[in-house]
């Protein structure tokens, strides 16, 4: 517990706190946290079970597909490619999409020292992955579409006298397939790609987390390695998605739709976990939760914040990001903020000066009397 037992004050002096103390000034109690988030956990389990049930259900829609021209030429070679072994099994894609971000949540505790941060960030990640998985399996079951190797699995044989549908009566359903029924059902559920959905749901969440904790897109020029680290999860997600096109399990549009679903879920899950997505002043701050079905708390945040919701005031949360670049943690970084969601709030210390105006201090207190000449010469810490 030594990793979580110490915290640094804003002035740089080391302080020792109780084992239940969360870094950045919040008290963590596991029992209270479970009561606050327990209903979410139950809902996520039910969503996961529902997703598994739909995943193993037979396809709802019976797709038509052309087989051959009357002269014997294959009409759709895009669904007649050889069947190959998948380069990335679905369980592996889901595992790395969860495990890699989780490892970074834990590693960052070397600086953050916050049990609540680990638990709540992991909850946000799971919300992204489970929501995306449920979303994609519903589309697979109800819509779907033939995979690139569909005809290889189908092994169609048209009985004598059976007339197809559509142009020149060349379209048939999977009733003419003679292959393995389970493989045939899987082969008509190409859209969207589950691999792509899981990869983007997990790795886009991690990329947003890197941006928030390392202050990549903020008020100072970051080190180049931070840019590489930010794009690394996105590259990983793209490699997993494109591998499914290479091995003939998906079309390009399947992985594109899966990527969009995963990205959308990652954005929503991140924004419901942290105070902002792009506003660098607040996107590392965990949003407080005051009550749930299992815990009714009318006075404020049961974990010690003393407020029912985040007010978007500089220094209100007492939470710091991992990085100390740009003056974070020593009350030196002052900025007018970014033109995104949190900047639009009207709270004191957050909206002063309009969308771009009004200086904000990323330390413990907001400072609205910054000397313009000092800022002009690059010293944002001097104030009148």
From TrEMBL:
Stored SUPFAM superfamilies: Acid phosphatase/Vanadium-dependent haloperoxidase
One Gene Ontology term, aspect cellular component: membrane
Residues of the Phosphatidic acid phosphatase type 2/haloperoxidase domain: 123-270
Any GO MF annotation of the entry: phosphatidate phosphatase activity
Pfam family, one: PAP2
InterPro entries xrefs: PAP-like, PAP2/HPO, PAP2/HPO_sf
Secreted keyword on record: no
Any GO BP annotation: phospholipid metabolic process
Stretches for region Disordered: 1-20, 359-384
Transmembrane segments: 36-57, 90-112, 124-145, 194-212, 224-246, 252-270
UniProt subcellular location: Membrane
Name of protein: Related to diacylglycerol pyrophosphate phosphatase DPP1
Lineage start: Eukaryota, Fungi, Dikarya, Basidiomycota, Agaricomycotina
